[in-house]
């Protein structure tokens, strides 16, 4: 599964480098101050995806069961400190649409020039 995630990330032209750490962490680098950290445990399907800009998490998805009021619980999205519903259910399957959303988000907020 991690290999599939890495392959999907490497196929994106705006991602400059993909790094693999330990057994569950992948970092996709967009620029010197913008990267995507992905933690994925295939044994229990737990995931956490965070877009980091200038050392601050600005966007993320995960399935930690701590936001019970979100209708898509345990799946949810963090966007500028708001907790929102998420349409991500299977990280590997949904990664392309997540990356498409990121592309629009990065462009809209001028994170890469």
Layout of secondary structure:
Layout: H1 2-10, E1 17-21, E2 25-31, E3 34-41, E4 46-53, E5 56-62, E6 76-79, E7 82-85, H2 91-108
Antiparallel strand pairs: 1-2, 2-3, 3-4, 4-5, 5-6, 6-7
One letter per element, helices H and strands E, the order comes to HEEEEEEEH
Radius of gyration: 13 Å
Instruction: Please tally the helical runs, counting DSSP H or I stretches of 4 or more residues.
Output: 2
Oligomeric grouping of the chains: single chain
Distance from first to last alpha carbon: 32 Å
Silhouette: globular
Largest sheet: 7 strands, antiparallel
In percent, how much strand structure appears in the residues? 35-45%
The total tally of domains equals 1
Proportion of helical residues: 10-25%
Number of strands: 7
Spatial sequence of strands, sheet with the most strands = 1-2-3-4-5-6-7
> Which residue ranges are poorly predicted, with pLDDT under 50 across at least 5 consecutive positions?
none
Helix/strand class:
alpha+beta
Mean pLDDT: 94
Name its key features:
113 residues; alpha+beta; seven-stranded antiparallel beta sheet; 2 helices; 7 strands
Summarize the structure.
With 113 residues, this protein is α+β, with helices and mostly antiparallel strands. Helices cover 24% and strands 38% of the residues.
Walkthrough of the structure:
- The protein is α+β, with helices and mostly antiparallel strands.
- The protein has one domain (2-106).
- 24% of the residues lie in helices and 38% in strands.
- The protein has helices at 2-10, 91-108, and strands spanning 17-21, 25-31, 34-41, 46-53, 56-62, 76-79, 82-85.
- Helix 1 (2-10) runs parallel beside helix 2 (91-108).
- The chain is globular, with a radius of gyration of 13 Å.
């Amino acid at each position: 599964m991690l290999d599939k995630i890495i392959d999907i990330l490497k196929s994106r032209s705006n991602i400059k480098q993909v790094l693999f750490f330990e057994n569950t962490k992948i970092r996709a680098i967009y620029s010197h101050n913008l990267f995507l950290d992905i933690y994925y445990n295939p044994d229990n399907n737990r995931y956490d995806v965070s877009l980091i800009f200038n050392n601050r998490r600005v966007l993320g998805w995960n399935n930690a069961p701590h936001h019970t009021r979100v209708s898509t619980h345990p799946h949810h999205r963090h966007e500028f400190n708001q907790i929102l519903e998420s349409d991500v259910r299977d990280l590997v399957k949904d990664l392309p649409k997540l990356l498409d959303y990121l592309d629009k988000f990065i462009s809209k907020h001028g994170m890469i020039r």
